[in-house]
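Figure S4 source data
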Amino acid sequence: MPITKVIKTIYRALSAHANIDDDAKYAIQKCISEFIPFITTWDNKQRHQDSSSTITAMDVLSIMNILKFVYYIKLTLLLNNYRAQDLNIALCNMGYFCGTS
């Protein structure tokens, strides 16, 4: 994942006056770069068992549940609300980004 996208994502989660060390930015980028292939590899194994060729967002979330990433299962709610065009409501209900930006 490009470092600029990582930085933008980090700053969205932090307060406006927060600073992030360059080493921390690159460490987070490395974690994300490892996490994405890890999850998709597990999901790909599941797709082969189900004889399916398409990985959906719900598939990824179910694999995350199997791998005990329980906190991230809240993303299911976000995903469902996003599909209903209620992204701001979903984020606010989860305690993030209340208000418009």
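Figure S5 source data
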Amino acid sequence: MTLKRQMMTELEKEKRDRQIFKVLEEIKAQVHQNTAILHAILKRQPLQDSLPDVSFRFPLRTREDISNLEEILKSKTKENALTMHLSTIGGTTAKDIMGRLMRHILANELATSFNWVGRGNKSPFSTLRIISSIKAAAKKHGVTEAECECHIKQWLKHSSDRDGGRKNRQHKAVEANVGPLAKITLARRHLPTSGQPKS
């Protein structure tokens, strides 16, 4: 190897080393910046506030559970804590995210007593304080407010079909129609066939 070629090789190696060192310094600076941001966030949002209220358990199963939650959510701190908790549930599509959220929050037997605006004999879900936390949690996953409301409405609407609800209704409908059909069948069985003398 000539002296000139050797010098060029050394220069290229030195240049490469400087580039690597520069990248490492940039990574180090970014780590320091991220650490500073994390510390600032933790100072504004204490760790205990990032957890749901320990006196409350999901899913909600009774009206009393709903009332207790509404009382808890009068505290903005608790509302923010619940939002952070719900945002960890996640999902893929908007429908999947909202379905997972609603299944986590409401037991199906309680869900059947609600619809969005409270039509008929059902209670309005849209007026509950938890709606704010649900929307905020869904927004963290890119779900718009309109999508959120739409999927909640559909989820509540079909709550009576889950857990075998639709199958049970169909079974009852069949049972309700079996009586007359059975009577007709029995009557036909007792009719004399052609050529058979009547008793």
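The two ends are 125 Å apart (CA to CA). Residues 46-54 have pLDDT under 50 and may be disordered.
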